[in-house]
Amino acid sequence: MYKLLMLLYWLSAILTLAAFYGMNALSEPVKNDGFGGGNGNPTLVIPFFLMPFIMYFLYGTVELSMRIASKWLTSRSIWLGILISSVYVVTVSVYTLKKADDFRSYIVETKDAFDNPEDFSLFTIFSNHIFFNPLTFILVVMICFLAGLVWSLIRDRPKKK
To answer: Residues 6 or more apart from 133 whose CB is under 8 A from it?
Structure first.
């Protein structure tokens, strides 16, 4: 049974990574033509159909990191892992949002159809390459790792009587 679950986990990991790369590749180029991205973001169909695998990958990563932390890491190394993961999560999140905001301003400068950057959404068909890339994939994995480390601390703490 364990081998089957691990096979499903690695299959889910590969499909999740493929979804990130596929959505990254399907970003629309920003051109000054009549296309304003008004039909939504059709590349969101990819994670819609892969959602069971993505959810299994997320839960599996949290569970696996919790089990590894409980079995092999000391309390001090778990806190160090929480610190490093938190710094990475905050840094990449701020970087990605800043990059997306700059890209939104670039879209408004490039396309004549838009005047104000606040009128244009951060998450569009033009910005898939910002939100779905290796950096944000590692961000998702690190959030799962962080949740697993915190879960292992909560699970392994001594019970009060």
So the answer is: 20, 24
Which helix (H) or strand (E) is 10 found in, with range?
helix 2-25
Q: How many CB atoms lie within 10 A of CB 140?
A: 17
Residue 34 structure tokens: 């009549």
Distance separating alpha carbons of residues 150 and 121, to the nearest angstrom: 34
Token pair listed for 140: 């998702």
Neighbouring C-beta atoms of residue 123, cutoff 10 Å: 13
Close Cβ partners of 89 (under 8 Å, ≥ 6 residues apart): 139, 142, 143, 146
pLDDT tens for the chain, residues 1 to 161: 689 999 999 999 999 999 998 888 888 777 666 555 555 678 888 889 999 999 999 999 999 999 999 999 998 999 999 999 999 999 999 999 999 888 888 877 877 666 777 777 777 777 888 889 899 999 999 999 999 999 999 987 776 66
